[in-house]
Amino acid sequence: xxxxxxxxxxxxxxxxxxxxxxxxxxxxxxxxxxxxxxxxxxxxxxxxxxxxxxxxxxxxxxxxxxxxxxxxxxxxxxxxxxxxxxxxxxxxxxxxxxxxxxxxxxxxxxxxxxxxxxxxxxxxxxxxxxxxxxxxxxxxxxxxxxxxxxxxxxxxxxxxxxxxxxxxxxxxxxxxxxxxxxxxxxxxxxxxxxxxxxxxxxxxxxxxxxxxxxxxxxxxxxxxxxxxxxxxxxxxxxxxxxxxxxxxxxxxxxxxxxxxxxxxxxxxxxxxxxxxxxxxxxxxxxxxxxxxxxxxxxxxxxxxxxxxxxxxxxxxxxxxxxxxxxxxxxxxxxxxxxxxxxxxxxxxxxxxxxxxxxxxxxxxxxxxxxxxxxxxxxxxxxxxxxxxxxx
Length: 391
Prior knowledge:
Blueprint: H1 2-34, E1 57-64, E2 73-81, E3 88-97, E4 106-113, E5 118-119, E6 123-127, H2 128-135, E7 141-149, E8 155-162, E9 170-177, E10 189-194, E11 205-207, E12 212-213, E13 219-227, E14 229-237, E15 243-248, E16 255-262, E17 268-274, E18 282-286, E19 294-296, E20 309-314, E21 317-323, E22 331-337, E23 344-351, E24 358-366, E25 369-376, E26 380-388
Antiparallel strand pairs: 1-26, 2-3, 3-4, 4-5, 4-6, 7-8, 8-9, 9-10, 11-13, 12-13, 13-14, 14-15, 16-17, 17-18, 18-19, 20-21, 21-22, 22-23, 24-25, 25-26
């Protein structure tokens, strides 16, 4: 009787184990079928430069982008270079409101007018409540807008939208231009989708840095997963914004907010924020157009748990905007490199002291100029423009 009972217990345990294994395999199958497959290798595209890529860059203009009226807080800007025939050369997006997590936070936009060489008035283009109504679920806060121009010159906007649980329980929402004009004063958006990045609880993914444009008109969007572990990812999109798949960038679990920099059409680097106490700018590399990534040794550049922004300007020339103080965001600088491993100072962007903060830089190339924007004291968005020196 004792042996029979023991056999029955063992048999039941094996049955439960087998059923559990079947359940896990079924979930894995559903997950694999639900997500897009990994796309073919991509060919990245250099910025359009009329001058040689090795000419020096000199500061031409700087200031603050106008804020929407009665808006005391701003953070996490994104810059978008516009086509040569557009009235505005650059659009800037950022989130603004009373404070970072306030219910009135919205996504603001302003455009740099080519004729007057001035930033025009800012306005809100995405608001939390309207976005939640369009999506069909509650949105507690929005932020981190990242803009992209598709092959039809339609503006897409990727934003972080949170529900209960804060930023770590967020989703990435893709919006597309719904207005006839992309001018900042007329621009409107409608949601396309919540990006399908995980089966079931599709949360804890955030976007922050600019996409890498591709020769086929599509792009690669760097994002990261953030729920305990940090996992940087590269998302592939087609020429009109269709989501094609994703791949993991780094095996590390303490890095986030990757920024993608091309060295050649299929060789790219990903520079990342480091959450370790004595952090360094971390880096990974792909040599096959985003199919596979390998971690490289950390750079000598310190990283005080702060976002970085990189841009490849031409073969053998890349720039990186990053905080250069080991434990604070009081210093923000621009560095340059030939190979992505050794970096030299290029320009001091903002140097403060005490509790002053200059953070979350963004870079873009437009009108033969390097444009830089960044958060100034969590109150405004500062900008600088570097032109090619005529030597």
